[in-house]
Amino acid sequence: MEQAVPGRTCIALVGPTASGKTELSLQLAEETGAEIINMDAMQIFKGLDIGTAKPTLEEQARAPHHLFDIQEPDSPLGAGAYTELAKETIKALWEKGLPVILVGGTGFYLRCLREGLSPVPEVAPEIRDALQIRLSNEGLAILREELERVDPIWAEKIHPNDKQRTLRGLEVYNSTGSPLSTFQKLPREGGLGSPINVAYLDPGQETLSHRIEKRAEIMLEAGFVDEVRSLLERGLAKEAHGFRAPGYREILQHLDGTLDADELIPAIIRSHKTYARRQRTFFKGESDRIEVQNLDDLMRLIAAKT
């Protein structure tokens, strides 16, 4: 465990979806006076509440929350921009002598805060838009073949069906003339520069599966379908970045009439279980930097703020 610095305590509470991170973070915050910072890439979006399992207004009233509802669903927030916002928020809380709890399952955000980012230049919006048009017109397979030609190292690292990372590789190459993999070999920069103690929460496969199944039912009872319908009525495109969150694509298919009502819950469950598997795989790869700590350990660590 990294040593806590008086007045500069930062805990990252991570784990797969439905593992109980929100409730545990609230318990810790109430007991220690810590404030909570979102580390979930989809809970940053306004209006995506039920489907992302965002803390409710009642839950957010139990402790101060930061970096929730800061972005429109059709306006992605890059890892670099998130990292800067999180760093500013953390340091502002530290200046007040407050401990910080980062909560979420987006492991890449955590990695960027701890290690910084590869110095990849910004990509012009017109390049990104042009590739999105090509994806729609030509299909992923054509773009994948192009990526394999211009950046075979990056292509080998990603799944052939990974649209987002395929586009990312082509964006960087088309913008700079150099492969993304070249930039990734350069020293990272822009991390927090202070210790982050990471606690991994995972109740086990069987319990997690049960929780995901129950959560899908609760989401639909809470108005998940109406949430998506309302976003569409307000003009949000079906291709919006926020709709990539687990469950939203299935709701869109249901509203389109391509997914029957009796198929909806099983489809949402499959989507969340697939996402949970990816999260568990990511954090397994980080296991040498993560300690599974019990509640008492976390309480003592956060309380070491003064």
Summarize the structure.
The protein has helices spanning 21-32, 57-60, 79-95, 107-115, 125-138, 140-150, 152-157, 163-176, 180-184, 205-221, 224-233, 248-256, 261-285, 295-303; strands at residues 10-14, 35-38, 65-66, 100-103, 197-200.
What does this protein look like?
The chain is of the alpha/beta class and about 300 residues long. The chain has three domains: about 10-120 and about 190-205 and about 280-305, Rossmann fold (3-Layer(aba) Sandwich), CATH 3.40.50; about 125-185, Orthogonal Bundle (Histone, subunit A), CATH 1.10.20; about 205-280, Helix Hairpins, CATH 1.10.287. It contains 14 helices and five strands. It has helices at about 20-30, 55-60, 80-95, 105-115, 125-140, 140-150, 150-155, 165-175, 180-185, 205-220, 225-235, 250-255, 260-285, 295-305, and strands at about 10-15, 35-40, 65, 100-105, 195-200. Strands 3-2-4-1-5 form a five-stranded parallel β-sheet, with helices on both faces. Helix 2 (about 55-60) links the parallel strand 2 (about 35-40) and strand 3 (about 65). It is globular, with a radius of gyration of 20 Å. The two termini are about 20 Å apart. About 30% of the residues are buried. The model is unreliable at about 1-5 (pLDDT under 50).
The helix/strand order is EHEHEHEHHHHHHEHHHHH
> What best-fitting shape do the alpha-carbon axes yield?
globular
Query: Gyration radius, to the nearest Å?
Result: 20 Å
- How many domains comprise the coordinates? 3
* CATH fold node name of the largest domain: Rossmann fold
**CATH class value of the largest domain:** Alpha Beta
Largest sheet report: 5 strands, parallel
Low confidence ranges:
1-6
Percentage of residues in DSSP E strands: 5-15%
- Physical arrangement of strands within the biggest beta sheet: 3-2-4-1-5
Strands, total number: 5
Task: Classify the secondary structure makeup into a structural class.
Answer: alpha/beta
- Report the total helices: 14
